[in-house]
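B., you asked whether I could sanity-check this one before it goes into the benchmark set. Here's the sequence:
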Amino acid sequence: MSGSGNDAANDGAAGDDLRDLIEQAEAMLQSLGGQTGEAAQRLRERVQATIGSARSRLASLEGDARALTDHAADTADRYVRGNPWAAVAIAAAAGVIAGALLSRRR
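And here's what the prediction gave me:
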């Protein structure tokens, strides 16, 4: 499970790449606007297929990210409910560390 953080970062980058691809493909479709002929039609169809595929993959990535976030929140909730004092100690330690880091910057 140590790689799951890296997987999330890779999925985020993949999502950004897919959004860029969709924008570029849509711009290409707009630039083809008035073009006629069989070659232009084939290109238009290929670009539309690429957009559809990219949108489908992006929706899948977003769904996976949502599921992972829900799972992490549920796991954290169960841990806190099962170990309230440990959760308080962890929160206090995080507060002390954040305070120390912030006081150093000044």
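One thing to flag: DSSP finds three helices and no strands in the chain. Otherwise nothing jumped out at me.
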